[in-house]
Amino acid sequence: MGRDRCVAGSARHPCAGARGGASFRAVRRRHARARRPRRVTTLRFDDVACVRGGRLLFEGVSLALGAREAAIVTGPNGAGKSSLLRIAAGLLEAAAGRVTRNGAAALADENAALDRELPLGSALRFWARLDGREDALPEAMAAMGLVHLAPVPVRMLSTGQRKRAALARVIASDAPVWLLDEPTNGLDSEAIGRLERACATHQAAGGIVLAATHQGLRLSKVQILPLAPTRDAGA
Ligand SMILES: Nc1ncnc2c1ncn2[C@@H]1O[C@H](COP(=O)(O)OP(=O)(O)OP(=O)(O)O)[C@@H](O)[C@H]1O
User: Fold this and answer.
1) Ligand 1 center to residue 81 CA distance, Å?
2) Closest-CA residue to 82 (of 108, 64, 62)
3) Predicted TM-score (pTM) of this structure
4) Which residue numbers delimit the ABC transporter domain (predicted)?
């Protein structure tokens, strides 16, 4: 039964299923949580500039993303794509301009930050537990085709498998803003399809995707943000 058909009045809530299971109160609490208005997710760059190592990488970058929208940052090596994502994540300060983000961000970059000695399942659970999202992990691992790799130590994973693990970490997080740095690097076509479907699900739920990539990534409601490097950037 759909959420909107949910009616009160019986000892067992109709959404609890034929065999009962959840009590009326538990189901009503769950539905109240689902109905609770979430603040609308937004990410804005207004006239942003980035300086690294004393060199101006880019300037005058503006971008406005709302719920369900996406952008792909393009540009040659060294143009500052990763730097732009780090600015969006709040890990790097813009040299000029204004960055506003409404909603937590999850960043997937080349550093998966997974304990190499732990089995993949445990390494991912460490982060999911910190995020209070342990229950979301099995679905995230399934989304990236990782379930069978759960017992394998992280250090034994291939490049593509490690990339999929980093993406599963983002999927399991509750962050409405996904920042994906070269997310298709090392992924085969099946894994790219999985990532695209995960992004579509995330956007449909009101999330934002900002990705930096040299390769194609099919996203809906997407805008392209080409980074034109300054002479200073020497890309
Ligand atoms: N910590 C740092 N200190 C100084 N300079 C840095 C630092 N990190 C990156 N840079 C420089 O900033 C420039 C932009 O780097 P960035 O990784 O943002 O580029 P990119 O567009 O993502 O490149 P690529 O396509 O190769 O991934 C590069 O010239 C790089 O050497």
Assistant:
1) 8
2) 108
3) 0.83
4) 43-235
